[in-house]
Amino acid sequence: MPTDQERHDQGMTVRRAVLGDAHVERSIAATTDLTADWQDFITRVAWGDVWSRPGLDRRSRSIAVLSSLIAHGHHEELAMHLRAALRNGLSVEEIREVILQSAIYSGVPAANSAFRIASEVLSATDAQTARPREE
């Protein structure tokens, strides 16, 4: 059984690969005494345990995450995970299909918001690299 430190290290590797170094560095820099345990928890559990499991590839995990975030209206996380989905290999066409599929089960207002957020993210992102466009 891996130690907490090994889980944290694995989680940090996956977190950086999925979200990008810049995002992770901002999260680390923003960590306070209040949020330190939370940052450690999400790194170990979400990224080290769940995202590292062998049952789904990262593309499939991104599809599941996008669907869930759309359904629950978590817009800030949706923007972040749209960028992650591109980094994980989803195409713009596949993202569009995830949002369309979500509309059937989560409702038109949820899909409207998701399309708006996706448009903003995609206009500011190079879909080939999933990195912000140069100014």
Automatic annotation (TrEMBL):
Any one GO MF annotation of this record: peroxiredoxin activity
Stored InterPro entries: 4CMD/NDH-1_regulator, AhpD-like, CMD-like, Decarb_PcaC
Domain of life (superkingdom): Bacteria
Signal sequence, start to end: none
SUPFAM superfamilies named in the record: AhpD-like
Domain Carboxymuconolactone decarboxylase-like per the UniProt entry, residue ranges: 37-120
PANTHER family: 4-CARBOXYMUCONOLACTONE DECARBOXYLASE FAMILY PROTEIN, CARBOXYMUCONOLACTONE DECARBOXYLASE-LIKE DOMAIN-CONTAINING PROTEIN
Identification of the protein by name: 4-carboxymuconolactone decarboxylase
